[in-house]
Automatic annotation (TrEMBL):
Organism of this sequence: Pallidibacillus thermolactis
Protein name per the record: Riboflavin synthase
Keywords assigned by UniProt, alphabetized: Repeat, Riboflavin biosynthesis, Transferase
EC assignment: 2.5.1.9
Origin superkingdom: Bacteria
Chain's gene name: ribE
Amino acid sequence: MFTGIVEEIGTVSRIRQNGPTLMITIKANKILHDVNLGDSIAVNGVCLTVTNFSKDHFEVDVMPETYKDTTLKYLKVGSEVNLERALAANGRFGGHFVTGHTDGIGTIWKRTNYENSILIELEIPEKFSHLVLEKGSIAIDGTSLTIFKVSHNTITISLIPHTAKASIIGSKKEGEKVNLEFDMIAKYLHTFIQNKRTTTNSKGITMDFLKENGF
């Protein structure tokens, strides 16, 4: 489990590819202070397992399914990546519930400077459009962000200067791809309601339905 609060920007120093699998070496500093083999680290929002490490780098493996469904396949030597360690039981929860299981890939359509913020409009897969709402949360390349505007299959986020500096989203350009993870609570709630509709043949959400299910 992660929070979407990026701890450090790392740099890819080596990539070994074998078909649809990768072994990636990433230079880092802060997140290696208490690392152990088998630890989970979110790399651009993708939960990966540490397979080797030293004082200034760590290695992870990318399996075929992850290679296919994430932007990790676009990484090159020198690419910067967002890094976050798994949430410690005694840690602060500053973002939102992030699992590190990417739902899909989005594309940056437009980037606009607005006063002291950066507005970024992204295209999201249409099949996930029901999971976004204004003022809701989304993880983009592992960064917990608030949705500023929703329009069909696009969303707009507003970056404050700190976020733009502390994560790679601040340097992304129009046309670039990003990993998307939609809000976990929204996904569970949608599935719950869909299952209830199937089992009860409900035609919609009523006050009685909400009361019966604890709302």
